[in-house]
Amino acid sequence: MNQMFGGLDRVLARVGKRIVRTDEHGESITVEASSTIRAAPCPVCHRWSNRLHGSYVRHLQERPILEQRLVLAVQMNRFKCPSADCPRRTFAESIGSLAGRHQRRTRSQARALHALGHALGGEPAARLATALGLRTSADTVLRELRRSSRRKRRPPPRVVGIDDWAIARGHN
After folding, report:
1. Taking phi first (over 0 means left), then psi (-120 to 50 degrees means alpha), and beta for anything else, what does residue 137 get?
2. Pick from 73, 72, 64: which is nearest to 132 by CA?
3. What is the pLDDT averaged over residues 18-31?
4. Around Cβ 22, how many Cβ atoms within 10 Å?
5. What kind and span of H or E run contains 61?
6. Residue 60 · residue 32 · CB < 8 Å
């Protein structure tokens, strides 16, 4: 098992997870990962807490392996904030390098969808992604393009050119 998922094991170890077991169900493989994190910083007040509040499982879609869909079932720990004046009472550990907040796909799959969407556009990218084993829709591809463009904001233009010829012909 570790030889097949060696690279995945290293990626999960970076965010404090380890592979517990794998299940194969027809066309999909589910990799279950448990948390090795025993303390985490509060995202608001940045104080560390080791007071466990509970846990839940987060399911993330990853790029396919050998034409089989790969789903990561990642255990996430919730902690109680130790600061009494912090507005955040509980928080979950961060796995930012693996997946963004509230995301249902890993960053590597998001990058693949972004590259397909950037090269082909919405509908053709979704068709090619489906042929490659990435289950998605055209709307999801376009949403991924918009999400990544928000991260890379460009400064507003300083000079705007006006087409004098069009104005002379009565065009707006």
Report:
1. beta
2. 64
3. 92
4. 16
5. strand 52-65
6. no
Picking from 154, 83, 141, the residue whose alpha carbon sits closest to that of residue 112 is 141
Q: What is the pLDDT of residues 136-164, one digit of tens each?
A: 999 999 998 888 766 666 777 777 776 66
The answer to whether the beta carbons of residues 90 and 80 sit under 8 Å apart is: yes
Phi and psi for 44 in degrees, rounded to 5?
-95, -55
End-to-end CA distance of the chain: 65
Between the CA of residue 59 and those of 56, 76, 82, 126, 150, what are the distances in Å? 10, 10, 28, 21, 25
Mean pLDDT of 43-69: 93
Residue whose token pair is 């910083």: 41
Give the DSSP letter string of 24-45: EETTEEEEEEEE----EE-TTT
